[in-house]
């Protein structure tokens, strides 16, 4: 795995840390990781210490990105760009930065691609187990809490992840920002990445609670477009999702250059 | 035979003797009755007679697990204390990770998983308690669950555990009617009536806990219980009179 390779240790053992007897039942990984889950990813003690060629390995991350999400009366709109850069080189224009955790929960990707997709896939597993055990869907608050608790164990070890967990549960639309520093905040509007400032500008001037679905989608699309216009590290396509009471739907995928022409025509 | 030594061993005919012996220990405990009404859950216990010098407030068989859930047990008090402690911590742990109070089913499942673990490990004996776990879920539905030393649980409309549980349960089966327990008073009356079947010397030896929707659990004052008991006795007299020609 990426993290293990970087740290040059033996692979992470997916089992309970030593010294914790199976029958004690107390588990501090967050939500009830039952015996036999295999969900305890605590690192063995040898991994951190045995590394003597310095911890500052340069890892190419997707900090260059723009992702945004906001709540409105009809749910949550999630919009992302699709460019991946390695320094000044554009590695890809077609990256999928929205992770479909399950049919009613979405996660966005900013920071390390591997970190985001790995932990969010793990979150998907935990959410499904919760659903089976408790016979009801997990709430967005609980799902984001699980993710935050999982990565908090690795705080300071070089994870880079800034994600927004978006969904609809029995209390309505839910939107949480979770990152690898251990932040977890609930909010109505977030934009993450190098292009976030430009996105905020567009969103803050256009956002109203009473937007229709189409208006909200157009606002989000415009915000990502403006960010890609000014930020060198964002571009590619705008992927747009809408989360509503029945789950999420993929609304559209628009190439940024085509959008540019479209808006230019409208202005003329 | 020697199959009751280590409880991890099945007997040839499929019994786990230690678990069954634990159930015997439960049958020696004082009676507990639970009734699930529409907007109330009521649990009543038989108060064992207390020595003169003993402070009877320290003998509590009914314990709060969280704002919306409480339980009463029959069997070994010391075992119950351990289970209750773990359950209380788990209620808070659940609030921390899921940002919601536990559902009654969840905490029952947790307690039963705990009990089951002790029926399947070396050198440990099962918990010698059965419990009635009652309360409300976040959405307001009332629940009453019964657990036993083997770690199984079931939901009930009304049930009894401990000494003479069978008698009380039969009484409840005959007398539980949906319309009667629609009101708080109805549920309380049924619980007291059921307990009076087996408790000697009336209201003095009954302790009753009531939880109404969105309210914390309340232990009824002895005067209130006495009032209900008197009312029930009057009702009984009147029905007897009607029977006589």
Give the key terms.
heterodimer, A: alpha+beta, five-stranded antiparallel sheet, 7 helices, 32% helix, globular, B: 245 residues, alpha+beta, 10 strands
What would you say this structure looks like, in words?
The complex is a heterodimer of chains A (268) and B (245). Chain A is an alpha+beta fold and 268 residues long. Helices cover 32% and strands 25% of the residues of chain A. Chain A has 7 helices and 12 strands. In chain A, the strands form 3 sheets. Chain A has a 5-stranded antiparallel sheet. Chain A has a 5-stranded antiparallel sheet with strand order 5-6-7-8-9, with helices on one face. Chain A has a two-stranded antiparallel ribbon with strand order 3-4. In chain A, a hairpin with a 2-residue loop joins strand 11 and strand 12. In chain A, helix 3 packs across helix 4. Chain A is globular, with a radius of gyration of 20 Å. Chain B is α+β, with helices and mostly antiparallel strands and 245 residues long. Helices cover 38% and strands 22% of the residues of chain B. Chain B has 6 helices and 10 strands. In chain B, strands 8-1-2-9-10 form a 5-stranded antiparallel sheet. In chain B, strand 1 and strand 2 form a beta hairpin. In chain B, helix 2 crosses helix 3. The longest helix of chain B has 22 residues. The mean pLDDT of chain B is 89. Chains A and B meet through helix 4 of A and helix 2 and helix 3 of B.
């Amino acid at each position: 795995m990426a993290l293990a390779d970087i740290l040059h240790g033996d692979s992470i053992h997916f089992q309970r840390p030593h010294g914790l007897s199976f029958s004690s039942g107390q588990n501090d990984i967050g939500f009830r990781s039952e015996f036999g889950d295999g969900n305890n990813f605590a690192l063995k003690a040898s991994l951190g210490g045995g590394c003597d060629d310095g911890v500052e390995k340069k890892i190419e991350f997707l900090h260059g990105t723009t992702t945004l999400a906001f709540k409105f009366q009809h749910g949550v709109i999630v919009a992302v760009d699709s460019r991946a850069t390695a320094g000044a080189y554009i590695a890809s224009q077609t990256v999928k930065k929205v992770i479909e955790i399950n049919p009613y929960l979405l996660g966005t990707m900013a920071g390390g691609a591997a970190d985001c997709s790995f932990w969010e896939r793990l979150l998907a597993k935990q959410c499904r187990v919760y659903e089976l055990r408790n016979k009801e869907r997990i709430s967005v608050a609980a799902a984001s809490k699980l993710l935050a608790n999982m990565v908090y164990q690795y705080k300071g070890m070089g994870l880079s992840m800034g994600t927004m967990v978006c969904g609809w549960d029995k209390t309505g639309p839910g939107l949480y920002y979770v990152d690898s520093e251990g932040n977890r905040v609930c909010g109505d509007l977030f934009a993450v990445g190098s292009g976030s400032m430009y996105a905020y500008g567009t969103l803050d001037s256009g956002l109203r609670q009473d937007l229709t679905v189409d208006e909200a989608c157009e606002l989000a699309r415009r915000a990502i477009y403006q960010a890609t216009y000014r930020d060198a590290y964002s571009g590619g396509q705008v992927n747009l999702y809408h989360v509503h009471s029945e789950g999420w739907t993929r609304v559209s995928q628009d190439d940024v250059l085509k959008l540019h022409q479209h808006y230019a025509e409208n202005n003329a | 035979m020697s199959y009751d030594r280590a409880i991890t061993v099945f007997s040839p005919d499929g019994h786990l003797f230690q678990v069954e012996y634990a159930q015997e220990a439960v049958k020696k405990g004082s009676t507990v009755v639970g009734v699930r009404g529409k907007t109330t859950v009521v649990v009543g216990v038989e108060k064992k007679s207390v020595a003169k010098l003993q402070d009877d407030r320290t003998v509590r068989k009914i314990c709060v697990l969280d704002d919306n859930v409480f339980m009463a047990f029959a069997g070994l008090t010391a075992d119950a204390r351990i289970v209750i402690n773990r359950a209380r911590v788990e209620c808070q742990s659940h609030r921390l990770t899921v940002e919601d109070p536990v559902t009654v089913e969840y905490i029952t499942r947790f307690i039963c998983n705990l009990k089951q673990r002790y029926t399947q490990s070396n050198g440990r004996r099962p918990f010698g308690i059965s419990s009635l776990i009652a309360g409300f879920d976040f959405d307001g539905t009332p629940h009453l669950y019964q657990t036993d030393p083997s770690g199984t649980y079931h939901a009930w409309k009304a049930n009894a555990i401990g000494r003479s549980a069978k008698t009380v349960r039969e009484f409840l089966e005959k007398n539980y009617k949906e319309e009667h327990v629609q009101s708080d008073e109805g549920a309380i009356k049924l619980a007291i009536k059921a307990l009076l079947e087996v408790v000697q010397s009336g209201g003095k030896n009954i302790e009753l806990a009531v939880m109404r929707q969105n309210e914390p659990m309340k232990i009824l004052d002895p005067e209130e219980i006495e009032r209900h008991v008197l009312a029930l006795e009057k009702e009984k007299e009147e029905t007897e009179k009607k029977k006589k020609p």
